[in-house]
UniProtKB/TrEMBL annotation:
Keyword Cell wall biogenesis/degradation part of the UniProt annotation: no
Entry protein name: Transmembrane protein 88
Positions of region (Disordered): 1-20
InterPro entries per UniProt: TMEM88
Family as reported in the entry's similarity comment: Belongs to the TMEM88 family.
Amino acid sequence: MSDQDIEDFEADSMSDTSRMIPGLPPYNMEDQLLPMESRSRWGCWMWTLLVTGANFVAFLANFIILFFIFTIVLTPTIVVVYFGFQCHSRVLHSDASYCKTLLDDNSSSALIILGFVMMSPLIVLAMAVYCGLARRLRLFMCFQPYTRALYKGVRWRWYEEGGICGCAREWNNHVKAWV
C-alpha cells in the first residue's frame, strides 16, 4: 500500500466519536481524583462526631420545619375529627352545649368522615409546601458527607455554595454537567 492509500484508509475508518477526549476533564482542579491524606485515628473520631452533630442538627431543623408545616396545613382536619369524636355518643360523648344542641350521632359521624376525607389532599399540599421550601432554602445541602471526617482537605458543602446551606446565595445559573 502506498502512503496515500494508508492515509485514505485511516481517514475512512475514524468515526466522529474517536476524535473525542477519552476521559472527561475534572470540573475543577480541586475536584481531581488525587489520593487524599487520611486523618489520624483520634482526628477521624473527632471529625466523625462533628459531622454527625452537624447532620443531626440539619435533621432536627428539617423535622421541625416539616412538623410546623404539617401542623398548620392539617389544622382543619384535626379540628373536624376532634369535634366529631368528642360529640359522638359511642366515643367520648361530651356534655358540652354544642354537642347537645348542634351535633347528634349522625352529624358527628359525618364530621369524622369529612375529616378523614379532607386529610389526603391536605397531606399532599403540606408535602408540596415542604418540598418547595426545602428546595428554595436548600435544606438538604446542610447534610455533610462522612468523607469529611476521613480525609483532610474535604470542604464543607455549604462553603462551596456561598453560605450556610446555600441560603445566602442566589440560585446558581451555571450548570456544571457534561452532556
